[in-house]
Amino acid sequence: MHKIDLQNLTKIYGSNPEKALEMVRAGVDNDTIRQKTKLVVGMRQVNLFVDEGESFVIMGLSGSGKSTLLRCVNGLIRPTDGQVLIDGKDIVTMPSGELLQFRRRKMAMVFQRFALLPHRTILHNVAYGLEVRGMSRDQRTERAAQAIKMVGLQGWEDYYPDNLSGGMQQRVGLARALATDPDILLMDEPFSALDPLIRQEMQDELLEIQSKLQKTIVFITHDLDEALKIGDRIALMRAGEVVQTGEPEDILLSPASDYVARFVENVDRSKALTAGAVMVKPRAVVHPKDGPRTALHLMERNGLSTLYVLDREGRLRGYIQAEDASALVKQGHRQLEEIILEDVPTALPDTPLADLLETLAHTRVPIAVVDEDKVLKGVLVRGSVIAGLAGERRPENE
Amino acid sequence: MSKIAGLSSTLQQLWAEGIPRIPLAEWTDRAIAYLTVHCSDATQAMSEFLRERIINLQDTLISLPPEFIVLVFVLLAWWLAGKKIAIFTAIGLLFIINIGLWDVTMQTLALVIGAVFLCILIGIPLGILAAKSHTAHRIISPILDFMQTLPAFVYLLPAIPFFGLGVVPAVITTIIFAMPPVIRLTDLGIRQVPEELVELGKSYGSTFMQMLLKIELPLARSTILAGINQCIMLSLSMVVIAAMIGAKGLGGVVWEAIQTLNMGMGFTAGVAIVIMAIILDRLTQNLGKTTRK
Fold first, then answer.
1. Which pairs with CB-CB distance under 8 Å and at least 24 residues apart come from B28-32?
2. Fold match between A1-106+215-267 and A276-389?
3. Is B161 exposed, middle or buried (0-12, 13-18, 19+ CB in 10 A)?
4. Could you tell me the CATH superfamily of domain A1-106+215-267?
5. Domains and CATH numbers, chain B
6. Is the predicted ipTM greater than 0.90, yes or no?
7. A53, A175, B77, B171: which could form a disulfide with B86 (CB 3.0–4.6 Å)?
8. DSSP state string for A240-265
9. What is the pTM of this model?
10. B286: closest CA of chain A, how far (Å)
């Protein structure tokens, strides 16, 4: 069962939406519906799921329906049609008392303009969710203080929101959400109102907190770089519809439509793309037990001047160079062991390309992409990296 | 041109034949007569209840030593509005004692306090209702317009058959005149709460009362207090006019001065009214700003 499962969700703004709903089902476009019925379609037939512990980003420009979607998840907006299943329960048809408890226990929202109460101190802002739940003063003060510590604002408990900078205010917003210990965090463009530097800092902090807490996060943004950084999966919305859902690299490397392609055109790919996404299979490798003649043969056949050496478990030992191998042949040695060079540049599959560009510019050997156990996963050659940065799908064999 | 000439001649003809005059005055008389007959038990009972309390308040204020009341006002002024206003308050109130208008001033103050208290008691819930329900807003709005623009003298008259002469009709007419800003500004203050904060309340599972008490009313506070400030000022001006139906107080002195053409007496009472107005205004103007720096 998915944590959040949106089924066939449609929202039409205005009264008497039946006719417009029929038109949505028949596939009539939004403009025609607006002309004929004077109603605005906010979201049309969205199907999405989010799994437990996943960071799911919904991306789109303003008016694409992403805020409507988020507000359907906690029932702030009631969809015209479709189901919002959370842990298998439909919150659209849920009685209001149960929905109230659901909001108090299961989810918390972080807002674009922070939504702090100006008449309350930081501590009492953070404790808000616990207070409406009816928790005793001592208990909620303690929990709120913990949450404040988690976002690094200890010492600011007794200040008022207008004493704090934007970045700090949003930390309060985050602490307020975390204090209720929800399963689901709904984040409505939480960092859009912040300066670029502060925004990055907050993104990093969110990732760090998420790595500890493993909440289910639904995160809204119009910033693709942010989406790629935060999202385990991303849904791209346009005119109320989800046009593509996938992992960040799917969106970047195989855009489903021209619209997505244009959207991802200007992204800084070197930050978004990882070594794992653009690496290619090595054309040939040798094992230490193979003789120098085999190695030379492989190099010759593949047009290479260096070869990676792997042990029997596939772990990277180093590389050999063609001239060393031919010297070995002349001396009549049969073991490669003595000519293995170990100064191989390596990267993990999730290293961003931005961190590797300089190495790539100077290295004589391709960068080896290895996992934590040093097992070779692939190699980065200049050609595949440039192709990836240019937005081309990686060729399966190179 | 000929069309217009034709139209005007038709109108003249109609006029000559006589459109029957709409008997609004007769209807009003009959309605009030009907209400007086059928509701007088209720209004009389309410009248008794109110009269007792207002007279009590007046007697209390008059029986307290004037120095004590001056001290309370000066301290309040110091706390709410600063040193300058405190000094003005002291001088102003001592001047009123000096010119011998203290007792009537206290009568007026009691009327204002009573009227404002009732305005708040009725006005804030109505304002909340108007903010929360579009239907209520649509019904209340034009009634408030009517209450505020209908000349005060017009409803001084019907107050007499319902509540007799004296302090009660004075307070009732004052409430009608002074309550609209409380309702309007409560309504406005709640509507002005940013959408995101309303969403905050809902998304964290607040009940209706939690929304109201923890988010909406605190945020609407300074707007509501501005409404109360206006209400106090309007009450003061109306209480003076209501002297015509027997409210006494400072307005009573002015009324008497008019009837006897006693200019000195009229002016002195007028000055006392101005002093009270300035003190009450300055005290309540800053209510919204002082509590948190």
1. B32/B158, B32/B161
2. no
3. middle
4. P-loop containing nucleotide triphosphate hydrolases (3.40.50.300)
5. 47-287 (1.10.3720.10)
6. no
7. B77
8. TEEEEEE-HHHHHHS-SSHHHHHHHT
9. 0.76
10. 17
Q: According to the CATH classification, is domain A276-389 in 3.10.580.10?
A: yes
Q: Do B221 and A102 touch (CB under 8 A)?
A: no
Residue type, A93: T
The closest of B116, B59, B65, B88 to B239, measured between CA atoms, is B116
The residues near B230 (Cβ < 8 Å, ≥ 6 apart) are B178, B181, B182, B185
User: What residues of A are in contact with residue B210 (Cβ under 8 Å)?
Assistant: 132
Q: Is A377 helix (H, G, I), strand (E, B) or coil?
A: strand
**Which amino acid is it at A327?**
A
CB contact under 8 A, B203 and A103: yes
Q: What is the pLDDT of residues A57-71, one digit of tens each?
A: 999 888 889 999 999
Q: What is the largest CA-CA distance in chain A?
A: 90
Residue of A nearest to B292 (CA): A119
pLDDT tens for B34-66 read: 887 777 777 778 888 888 899 999 999 999 999
Amino acid at A84: V
Determine the 3-state secondary structure of A182 from DSSP. coil
A180 contacts on B by Cβ (under 8 Å): 204
CA distance A91 to A78: 9
